[in-house]
Write a structure and sequence with these properties.
The complex is a heterodimer of chains A (87) and B (159).
Chain A (H helix, E strand, L loop, with lengths): L1 H22 L1 H4 L1 H10 L4 H9 L1 H15 L19
Chain B lengths: L7 H26 L15 H33 L8 H26 L11 H24 L9
Helix pairs in contact in B: 1-2, 1-3, 3-4
The chains are: A mainly alpha (87), B mainly alpha (159).
Amino acid sequence: MRISRLVARGSFTAVLFSDYLLACPLCHTQTGRQVRAGIFDAHFSGNLLCTLIPFPLFLCIVAVIYYRFPVNTDKAPQCRDKRTPGR
Amino acid sequence: MPRQANPRPLIAAGALLGIGLGGFVDGILFHQILQLHNMLSNWVPRDTLVNEEINMFWDGLFHAFTWLMTVLGIWLLWRAVNRPEVPRSGSALVGSMAFGWGIFNLVEGVIDHEILQVHHVYQNGSYVVWDLVFLASGVILMLTGWFAIRSTSRVRFDA
């Protein structure tokens, strides 16, 4: 039962995405080949690093907010009981 | 026994959502509608179709991670609202989202525009002014968010 569900889902996903893969203009055209060459060139690692470098920083900032944001819990009002609906 | 309020999880979730949604504003408004501010446009000028598509690829990667930030933000929000000690304050959430959007503009502006110079907000002409406006928008959003969080009746912060 589980396997047949898995096969059904797999087939559905394959059908869903096959159009995109077959239509992939990056894969079949001359321009696509040039674009691929331009993306996966000697600068690829550097470009990847530059593109993604803000994200670890965002997560670090959010971690600082989560653990160290200047909240005065003494002044903060006591909180709702779990059963009490919030505002 | 009543618990001590802890708004930090809510603020962190809102900030991460603001970072993600701010990234989508950047991607949708700047990259797609106005067609500027593309990821590597200072290194790979958008003067040919091939270079345009190369920029599009790196924009897409950036947006994929922006999407990831949004999903993480939703997850954090879900966890926060299920914790009884976290106050459910709408203004704190909206304020922290504005705060997060400001963080996005400030961090992205400093790293990508000023330090790495992979792109500028507006590539033609004097880009400095536009870059500064972008940074200023980050500061203004952060301040707006900060004051919105502080002004909530249920949550108070140290000055």
